[in-house]
TrEMBL record, chain A:
<dbReference type="InterPro" id="IPR042243">
    <property type="entry name" value="HypD_1"/>
</dbReference>
<protein>
    <recommendedName>
        <fullName>Hydrogenase maturation factor</fullName>
    </recommendedName>
</protein>
<dbReference type="InterPro" id="IPR002780">
    <property type="entry name" value="Hyd_form_HypD"/>
</dbReference>
<keyword id="KW-0479">Metal-binding</keyword>
<keyword id="KW-0408">Iron</keyword>
<dbReference type="Pfam" id="PF01924">
    <property type="entry name" value="HypD"/>
</dbReference>
<comment type="similarity">
    <text>Belongs to the HypD family.</text>
</comment>
<dbReference type="InterPro" id="IPR042244">
    <property type="entry name" value="HypD_2_sf"/>
</dbReference>
From TrEMBL, chain B:
<dbReference type="InterPro" id="IPR011854">
    <property type="entry name" value="HypE"/>
</dbReference>
<dbReference type="InterPro" id="IPR016188">
    <property type="entry name" value="PurM-like_N"/>
</dbReference>
<protein>
    <submittedName>
        <fullName>Hydrogenase expression/formation protein HypE</fullName>
    </submittedName>
</protein>
<dbReference type="InterPro" id="IPR036676">
    <property type="entry name" value="PurM-like_C_sf"/>
</dbReference>
<feature type="domain" description="PurM-like N-terminal">
    <location>
        <begin position="55"/>
        <end position="167"/>
    </location>
</feature>
<feature type="domain" description="PurM-like C-terminal">
    <location>
        <begin position="180"/>
        <end position="325"/>
    </location>
</feature>
<dbReference type="Pfam" id="PF00586">
    <property type="entry name" value="AIRS"/>
</dbReference>
<dbReference type="InterPro" id="IPR010918">
    <property type="entry name" value="PurM-like_C_dom"/>
</dbReference>
<feature type="compositionally biased region" description="Polar residues">
    <location>
        <begin position="1"/>
        <end position="11"/>
    </location>
</feature>
């Protein structure tokens, strides 16, 4: 398959593995945080960790928009659907994410709420247009979630809705920004700070915001960062670039994913986002707490299409499971298998934390692809 | 489909308006409208001597071997897709479930749940596809039932098919018979059906000419057991795809498996669509493929027999059964690393980014 197979070539992978082995110094170890769930997925899907030297470990970061969405926002969405009777449209990943009181969008749908899985903002707009013909009173809310990658389509949806005068469509905006999250992890003021030697930076996000957005990592935090594509060879080549930087004592921003990422990013998409969305003063991240200017809300000019204004619901703190260690996993402080719930009561069939429910989450990746090599306690728990 | 003996001309002054008509509640009410639907549509297309008996059941003679029976409900959206429709699928699916015991399928029964408003022309296309599929397979539909539910209570048409078949003497094929060292084979490329269906869903804007692989596999199975009578396991990887089927067999037999990912046949269109949607082709449904497990020393013979059949030309040996108390399916990736191939958790959902 053109433009895919080239990045999954097994001979090239072995060459890269040999190069990393040759360059990794035996007298130290290398802890490389992959920011994105897409990287985590590639590492497990292709068994990349198996090809790395013993002293190179991938540390999983917070880069999965489902994992970092706080429970309270899911609660809010369910309340919009149940209290206001709106048709709530969202991406599939969100359907099974645990909400408070053992709820989820999937369970709310089964209980009668009109919740629909869509593949794009265009699907949600189409549902709203159809409703104007058949059920004029029916309101359609698009539950928008994601990092900068999925934000431009939401901006386009807002512009389209305004241009068409679509009054039965609105957006529940939960778009979050990656640089503030990375900054929060690296300047963690708590006692626990993840020990990281280098970072595999976001790829798809960077196609939008550009690689220059991460200059602060080297400048302010003294760490090398390589923008890394999601294909397995991208991940391996980026790991090699990081190992070289670390060995040479360099702290540079490098762009491995130069086939798609420029320093300035996609300026048209950025303009679309600026026109329709503005930074929130602060936003809660699962695992990272309340971070300033880390998320977007709908600009005043589009207030008529802002579901939070149109369908207000009481906001209460989400009730997370007490033993869930997702916050530590997201910050690179704990491996999924160190969580007491992992594999015992928390599995993809019964996820207690978002890192287990999202296909991009570190816990799900460990469980789905790697549990054969972890201690029997967790592996045998599949039968429980 | 409650059978009646006489020809439609005997009872009905005008023919059923198939081009313009719709299913309505009277078609399930047990009266004249229902009788006409059965005569003009079901019996007209599905006609065979046992159906013509006109009773509420089909009466047939004794069979030679052991009997197997299987039933399967078919709910699918959209009803029509590249390579078939719900009717042909309902015939193939049940024939395959019967055949996976190494059996020769003999008869089918079909139950229809129709939604008020379903165009009669659509229903006729479905019934014609069933008739063609059952004739091509040599497995007649000998009895059936029709119910109509109100608009909004079904997705156009649901079909349940039940099949019976006979297992030849000396054949014992079952999911609990996989043994460490056995070879694992697949009869062709995976995921074709699931991707063909997904591509027809209105809200997924990608086009492909990929056809569903929906097919009756009993002929392939007959050739396989003629070549290798001691096949241990056969199963068609439908819902949940190859991943679910291998995990089922591993659980039943108390074994593990090591599968070489590079050996699994996949069409470029399937790989491309899965890339686009963030899906794993090994979790995607198939309707015309089978997984076989046999003693390693018989694998080459079985592979040759499979490849000699039109429905098995792309067959491949994809791995082996291992001793593993945890009953895990491990995939050796093309990179030489390993990962687990697990059951799907819930429905396979596309990733956000």
């Amino acid at each position: 398959m053109k433009f895919v197979d080239e990045y999954r070539d097994s001979a090239l992978a072995r060459d890269l593995a040999r190069a990393i082995l040759a360059e990794a110094r035996p007298d130290r170890d290398y802890r490389l945080m992959e920011f994105c769930g897409g990287h985590t997925h590639a590492i497990f899907r292709y068994g990349v960790q198996d090809l790395m030297p013993e002293n190179l470990r991938f540390v999983h970061g917070p880069g999965c928009p489902v994992c970092v969405l706080p429970m309270a926002r899911i609660d809010q969405a369910i309340a919009m659907a149940s209290q206001h009777g709106v048709t709530l449209c969202t991406y599939g990943d969100l359907m099974r994410v645990p909400a408070s009181e053992r709820q989820s969008l999937l369970k709310a749908k089964a209980a009668g709420a009109d919740i629909r899985m869509v593949y794009s903002t265009q699907d949600a707009l189409a549902i709203a247009r159809a409703a104007t013909q058949q059920q004029p009173a029916q309101q359609v809310v698009f539950f928008a979630i994601g990092f900068e990658t999925t934000t431009p389509p939401t901006a386009v949806a807002l512009k389209t809705a305004r241009a068409e005068g679509l009054r039965n469509f609105s957006v529940f905006c939960n778009h979050v920004l990656t640089p503030p999250a990375l900054r929060a992890i690296l300047s963690d003021s708590a006692d626990e700070v993840a020990r990281i030697d280098g970072i595999l930076g976001p790829s798809h996000v960077s196609t939008i915001i550009g690689s220059a957005a991460y200059e602060f990592v080297a400048r302010d935090h003294g760490l090398p960062l390589v923008i890394a594509g999601f294909e397995p060879l991208d991940v391996m080549q980026s790991a090699l670039m990081l190992v070289r930087q670390i060995n040479q004592g360099r702290r540079d921003l490098q762009n491995q994913y130069s086939r798609a990422v420029s320093p300035e990013g996609n300026t048209k998409a950025q303009a679309l986002m600026r026109d329709t969305l503005v930074p929130r003063e602060r936003f809660e991240w699962r695992g990272l707490g309340w971070l300033p200017e880390s998320a977007l809300k709908i600009a005043d000019a589009y207030a008529d299409w802002d579901a939070e204004q149109r369908f207000p619901v009481a906001v209460t703190p989400g009730r997370e499971h007490e033993g869930c260690e997702c916050p530590k996993v997201l910050r690179g402080l704990m491996e999924p298998t160190d969580c007491k719930l992992f594999g015992r009561v928390c599995s993809p069939e019964n996820p207690l934390g978002a890192c287990m429910v999202s296909s991009e989450g570190a816990c799900a990746a460990y469980w789905l692809h790697g549990r054969s090599r972890i201690p029997q306690r967790t592996a045998s728990a599949s039968a429980t | 489909m409650t059978n009646t003996k006489e020809s439609p001309q005997t009872h009905f002054r005008s023919r059923l308006d198939i081009p313009n008509g719709q299913v309505d509640l009277s078609h399930g009410g047990g009266g004249r409208a229902m009788a006409q639907l059965i005569e003009d549509l079901f019996r007209h297309h599905l006609d065979n001597p046992l159906l013509r008996q006109g009773n509420d059941q089909a009466l047939f003679g004794p069979v030679r071997g052991r009997l197997v029976m299987s039933t399967d409900g078919h709910v699918i959206s959209p009803l029509f897709f590249h390579g078939g429709n719900i009717g042909s699928l309902a015939v193939h699916g049940t024939i395959n479930d019967v055949a996976m015991a190494g059996a020769r399928p003999l008869y089918l029964a079909a139950g229809f749940i129709l939604e008020e408003g379903l165009p009669l022309a659509d229903l006729e296309r479905i019934v014609i596809a069933m008739a063609e599929a059952s004739r091509a397979a040599g497995v007649p539909i000998v009895t059936g039932d029709t119910k109509v539910v109100e608009r909004g209570k079904a997705d156009g048409c649901f079909i349940t098919t039940t099949g019976v078949g006979e297992v030849p003497e000396g054949i014992h094929i079952s999911g609990e018979l996989a043994a460490p060292g056995d070879a694992v084979l697949v009869s062709g490329s995976l995921g074709d059906h699931g991707i063909a269906i997904l591509s027809r869903r209105e809200n997924l804007g990608f086009g492909t000419d990929l056809q569903s692989d929906s097919a009756a596999l009993h002929g392939l199975v007959a050739d396989m057991i003629a070549a290798v009578p001691d096949i241990h396991c056969l199963r068609d990887p439908t819902r949940g795809g190859m991943a679910a089927t291998l995990n089922e067999l591993a659980a039943q037999s108390g074994v593990g498996m090591l599968i070489r990912e590079a050996a699994i046949p996949l069409k470029p269109e399937v790989r491309g669509a899965c890339e686009l949607l963030g899906l794993d082709p090994l979790h995607i449904a198939n309707e015309g493929k089978l997984i076989a497990i046999c003693p390693a020393e018989r694998a080459a013979t079985l592979l040759a027999a499979m490849r000699a059949h039109p429905l098995g030309q792309e067959s491949a040996i994809i791995g082996e059964v291992t001793q593993d108390p945890q009953r895990l399916i491990e995939l050796e990736t093309p990179f030489g690393g390993r990962r687990l191939l697990d059951w799907l958790s819930g429905e396979q959902l596309p990733r956000i980014c």
